[in-house]
Write a structure and sequence with these properties.
This protein is of the alpha+beta class. The chain has twelve helices and 16 strands. The longest helix has 27 residues. It is globular, with a radius of gyration of 22 Å.
Length: 390
């Protein structure tokens, strides 16, 4: 797209790593670590997304995530970007559209490849339209729509969209889908006990019991930045492989991904490492943003009662309070988080469907689904652990 008045040019770039890091991050105004140049480039350079070195042509694009960032330039200045990917499947997204794909293909259409605007493998709400100025949102989204239409793509999907950007998508004829997550929010606590004091007596006692049992069996190290050494990454890789085997069957990320982010964004990484008699037995990898601690990857090599809750939830709350963060986001799903002080919130995704008839069918489905999600969130909120106020 070339706008003669504003001299805007939209382009498909070959990768995020091919774009100047300072210009990309200047558009990442929310400073979300998962849409940073460092994180997205690490996915590419580690071959967690994109092309691999495999000599077998059938395996070179085995990840199914082909980096296709859409960028908007004004002269030599990057003024906006979409972290977008061509996808040959729906894995690693956490917003499930498999039924849509099946229905479209049964009707004779070709659902894949589709375009995905996302932080791969990261169910973390954040800005999906990276902007120097809000006025560039519509040109970027219209560029994505034009690419889909001109290339015969069935759809474009933006997952885990920041609530403040949802209207940009609505205004450009995208469908909005709601889901839910559980986040912990700091309500002016000075310490963990302040947080516990706001809970009902039964929930407070239960959390104290869980923490006591876990901490009687392990001790913790909290590692950040240069404190995380190569042998720590070896340990964590074992944890990650174990979790991947149980959840997905194969890991999304490669070993070199962790080595790269250790070099390029180590100051944003917080690693809670649990040791039993000096032997590492579990760990949780977190990323710190300006206002939020994001829990991302966890693993353990033995079963210890309540160790998962302590490592992933309670330690994260402790750290967030100590460092003055507003909230903890502990990943997708998990109603068990509700009893531990994490509250249900609405998450959003946006979907541009090129086939008008298919779009109408999905729109009807989403209207009914949104009502059900809202009812679920309302019910879960009423079951929360906090004291009832009159």
């Amino acid at each position: 797209m070339d706008d003669g008045e504003s001299n805007l040019i939209a382009q498909l770039a070959p990768s995020v790593s091919s774009i100047d890091a300072r210009q990309w991050d200047a558009c990442n105004s929310g400073d979300n670590p998962f849409t940073s140049h460092a994180f997205l480039s690490a996915l590419e350079l580690s071959q967690s997304v994109g092309q691999s070195d495999d000599e077998d042509p059938a395996k070179r694009w085995a990840t199914g995530w082909s980096p296709s960032p859409i960028i908007l330039k004004q002269g030599d200045t990057l003024v906006g970007a979409l972290p977008s990917y061509l996808k040959s499947h729906s894995k690693g997204e956490y917003i499930f559209d498999h039924m849509w794909a099946d229905a479209y293909q049964r009707a004779g259409g070709r659902y894949y490849p589709k375009m995905q605007i996302a932080a791969p493998f990261s169910p973390v709400p954040g800005e999906r339209i990276l902007l120097r100025d809000p006025k560039y949102a519509t040109p970027l989204l219209q560029s994505a729509q034009s690419i889909a239409q001109s290339n015969g793509l069935s759809s474009v999907h933006a997952t885990f969209v920041d609530a403040q950007q949802v209207d940009y998508f609505k205004d450009n004829d995208w469908l909005i889908r709601n889901d839910s997550q559980f986040h912990w929010h700091d309500k002016g606590y000075n310490c963990f006990d302040d947080f516990l004091a706001k809970l009902s007596s039964r929930k407070r006692k239960n959390i104290r019991k869980e923490r006591r049992i876990a901490n009687q069996q392990v001790e913790f190290q909290i590692l950040c930045g240069d404190d995380i050494k190569p042998h720590h990454w070896d340990i964590f890789w074992e944890f990650y492989l174990d979790t991947s085997a149980r959840k997905w069957g194969s890991p999304y990320l490669t070993r070199s991904f962790f080595e790269i982010i250790s070099r390029t964004m180590g100051d944003k990484i917080i690693f809670f490492l649990a040791l039993q008699d000096g032997d590492p037995v579990a760990g949780a990898l977190n990323f710190a943003g300006p206002k939020c601690l994001y829990g991302r990857y966890w693993g353990a090599k033995c079963d210890i009662d309540f160790l998962h809750f302590e490592t992933c939830y309670y330690r994260a709350i402790d750290w967030a309070i100590e460092h003055g963060l507003d909230r903890v986001e502990a990943g997708a799903q998990g109603p068990h988080k509700l009893a531990r002080g994490y509250e249900p919130i609405t998450t959003y995704s946006a979907h541009y469907i090129t086939d008008r008839g298919f779009r109408e069918a999905i729109d009807d489905y989403l209207q009914r689904e949104r009502k059900a999600i809202a009812q679920d969130i309302e019910f879960m909120a009423s079951m929360g652990p906090f004291k009832r106020t009159s």
